[in-house]
Amino acid sequence: MNNFKQTIFIILASGLLFSSCQKSMDYKFQDKQPSISCDGVNPELLKEALYSFENDISNLYTRQGDIVDLKWAYMEFIYVGAMGAAPYSRIASEHSNIVVNALSREKGLWLRTSDNKIKLNYNSPLMRCLVENISYAPIKKAMENLLDVNALEPNLLASILRINIREAMKDKYLATYIALDMYYRNLLELEILLETE
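^ that's the sequence the OP posted. Answer follows.
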């Protein structure tokens, strides 16, 4: 019985230590319009994730003294981000690192592949909701076709997104997909690499 009490104590102490080391989530973008309405993930967290991503890319891809141009920031990001080659460590703000930590704890949002990579769960209710609600038919159809054959990868959407990036500015479902699969997934990968070094 003594070993049982020790085990319980160690588990509880580890949980308290882990939770006290994590930074609490400070929602900075609550004044922004709601982004999407999907079941499966905290909607306030998704809104925070989207607007933090847009803030980060705007900060990186806007030259000092220029007016922030979100369309330009999306164009610059998609060019490299869809291929997984964006300068993620330079883009990510401290706030986005906290957001990605919160996203990493969302049950069913991410999968670990056989080669130990992180992947957005394309079979999740959230992903189905995002794709179903994308308003621009050519992008929606391309994503549906890739999902139907279990072949969706961000790099396969690179061309159509580059040509039609203005759609992400109008469509928060598409923008949320871009933020999750082309930005936060790569930030999670960076976190894993740093943890294993």
